[in-house]
Structure formats: C-alpha cells, structure tokens
Specification:
Largest sheet: none
Number of domains: 2
Number of strands: 0
Helix content: over 70%
Structural class: mainly alpha
CATH architecture of the largest domain: Orthogonal Bundle
Radius of gyration: 19 Å
Strand content: under 5%
Distance between the termini: 62 Å
CATH superfamily of the largest domain: Tetracycline Repressor, domain 2
C-alpha cells in the first residue's frame, strides 16, 4: 500500500488521535457540521481511517460521548477526592466539578447531554452514563437517609441547569467573577438543592 505524500503516516494510538480530532472538530464546527472526512483531515490520516475504526459519524460521536462520560466522571471524582469525607462537601465538590467540566469542554458537554446523533443503546455508552448517574445517586443518598429519587433529580437538575446556563453564557454576572468568588456563589446556590 502506498502512502499519500500529503498525509503523514500516523504513529501511536490512532483511536485516541481520532477521538481527540473529533472533539476538536466538534468544538470548531458543531455537531450539525461534524463529518468523518474533516476528522480524518484534522488527524492527518486517510479519509477512510475513521470509518474503519468507528463505522460512521454516529459511531465516532458515540465513542466520543462514551469517553466524554468517563472524563466527566473523572472531573466529579477529582473534586470529591479533594473534599474529604463529609458527604455534603463531597456532593458540593462534585457539583462544582460538573460545572467546571461543562465550561472547560462545552462541545463535549453538549454532546453527552444533548445530541441525538449518538447511539444511546451502545453498551459502552450505557455503562459510562449509568456509572455517572449511579455516583450522583450514591452522593445524594449519603447526605440523607431520607433522600429519594426526587432529591436526586432535584440535585441533578440544579447543577445541570447551572452548567448549561454557564456554557451558554447566560450567567455573565456570575461568570465574570474571579474563580474563588464564583465558586462561593455556586456553592451557595447548589446548597439549596441538597437534601
């Protein structure tokens, strides 16, 4: 097989490179204009490489969403690890991690929580998203023995709503604050949703 001189031979983890290129493409062009050809061009590989690994654009977006859920969960876990053992503080830190993830990686946040181009029946995606939701439930139930499903939904709705508003630049007064003041304001708001 001859190598196209305009496309350098790809060394390393091709799957990871394609996922990174897909996230960059998603951030630059949005999900509506997302294409395998553009991802391949960005990754510097043949236009057939993404299809070979992921099947079609939906397959690549589903794989990216799966990795997105894992990165999202890691952001929540990192926050909780710094919060110590107090369940309320851990849940508060998870909420702040949720918002930080959304604002740091808005295209990925929108993909995992709002795109209809991903396959929600994909087993890897189901496992990753279910794990994230299970951790949310565990955190809420650790705060109060009386917590129930409605409390979990209330916490999720509050933190997700704040994250979505910040990603959409709808909370300018809050977003323009220095990090410490912004976190203090978010903590105050999130406290209202905890059981």
């Amino acid at each position: 097989m001859t190598q196209d001189p305009e496309r350098p031979y790809h060394h390393g983890d091709l799957r990871a490179s394609l996922l990174a290129a897909a996230e960059a493409e998603l951030a630059d062009r949005g999900v509506e204009a997302f294409s395998l050809r553009q991802v391949a061009k960005r990754a510097g590989v043949s236009h057939a490489a993404p299809a070979h690994h992921f099947g079609d654009a939906g397959g690549l977006l589903t794989a990216l969403a799966t990795e997105g859920y894992r990165a999202f969960q890691q952001a929540l876990d990192d926050g909780m690890a710094q919060a110590g053992d107090d369940p309320r503080e851990r849940q508060m830190a998870a909420g702040l991690g949720y918002i930080r993830f959304a604002t740091a990686r808005p295209a990925l946040f929108r993909l995992i929580f709002g795109s209809d181009r991903i396959n929600f029946a994909d087993p890897d995606l189901v496992a990753a998203s279910s794990h994230a939701y299970s951790r949310l439930k565990e955190g809420v139930f650790a705060i109060s023995a009386d917590a129930g499903p409605a409390d979990v939904v209330a916490v999720w709705a509050m933190v997700h709503g704040l994250a979505d508003l910040m990603v959409g630049s709808r909370l300018r007064g809050l977003q323009d604050l220095p990090q410490g003041q912004r976190d203090a304001a978010l903590r105050h708001i999130l406290t209202r949703s905890l059981p």
